[in-house]
Amino acid sequence: MARAVRTPGSGGSARYRLVAGWARFLTGLFYRRVEVVGLEHVPTRGPLILTANHQNALVDPMLLLATVPRQLVPIAKAPLFRHPLIGPFLHLLGAVPVHRRQETGDDPTRNEAMFSAAIGTLEKGGAVMIFPEGLSHPHPALMPLRTGTARMLLGAEAAAGGRLGVTLLPVGLVFHEPGTFRAGWALVLIGKPVPVEDCVALARTAPDVAVRRLTDRLAEALRLQIVEADDRQTLRLLRAVDAMWRAEWSESSGDEAMTVARMQQVMRAYRYLESRAPGRVADLRRRVEAYADDLEHAGVRDRQLSASYSSGTVLRFTLREGLSSLLGFPLALWGMAAHVVPYQLTVAVIQAWRPPADEEATDKIATAVLLYPLAWGVEAWLAWRLVGGWALGAFLASLLPAGFFALAWRARLARIRREARGFFRFLADRDLRRHLLARRRALVDELQALARLVPESVRLGQPTEE
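Below the sequence we write its predicted structure tokens.
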């Protein structure tokens, strides 16, 4: 699969490019890394319905706008069009409102205009973006899909006599620490088109059956692009298992697509073995939980257990990183000073607001978009009034560069602290590293032994005879 980092949308009107560029800037700023995999599956032209799972509120459509190289017409819930911040952007994008059941009551005809507008977009060769679960939720699993996506596609094909050729693409949005500024990453995983031809033909004689079949097929395709877990604790343990595996086999941590595929296989194996070897699975889960907790308590990571902490290595690391951090401190200090007020105000608002997990990133971004310009305006006015025009010019010229430098400097300082904490922890307790490594190797051995009990077809998500 091809992979690109934060690939911009290449087409569309000027106002669409403006909104997509803004989304690209905000998501690239909030997340440490944003990657998109599978761009080769996106047709450059022709009618397209882009579907995705929905676990991160408005950040989800922002990521699609930022990374998919087509002009997308979002299908958005009607109340958002009245939102003072979000509504104007939806109008700029030419979004189509959808009325949910709690808003329409017993009047389903209110969504006829939505279907008509979406079908009209497809008939013109446009691309529609929709989240078929119908709502954002914090659960690490795909919720039951609404049938609107299938009805939209089949309706467009029926209007064109089955010759329109609509492409139905499943997209998985996978996050690590989705609500944490600069700590998490996001992966946009675009799958192969969902086959629709048989459902288009079936819709002529059995439309309800065709809608249900296509909806079920889309759900299965979306599940192949995401990591589903029973709960957030299970998802945490999946990540712990993957970190152990990568560290034990010295694999790079930079390929999120490979990480997703591996976690999917582990989860399939887990579900397969729960009923066949429940005792071993439960025991392994308890041991992984205890190991992850002890690792966290020690303040170290799996990668640090495998690192060499010789005196020469530590000295070179300290001199190199310490010197570069010291030289960059004045500029970083200015960048942090210029941004500390809006940053702390944003933190205070979010702590008071306490948004649900799936809305945390959205609310942080929206709050920052409001508070940062206000704080900058006050700071610029103070610079002008207290010092003069040259200070105002210097403040405005250095504001963004110093801010980005401060972010990079803080990330480097955090890495230095992690490495130093691990070194001194292992120095204080000479047996700690050896004991943790022995436990990790025992866990990996048990994982390999259990993996041998799972048919390859199960791990790869292929149909089995059972």
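Residues 73 and 281 are 45 Å apart (CA to CA).
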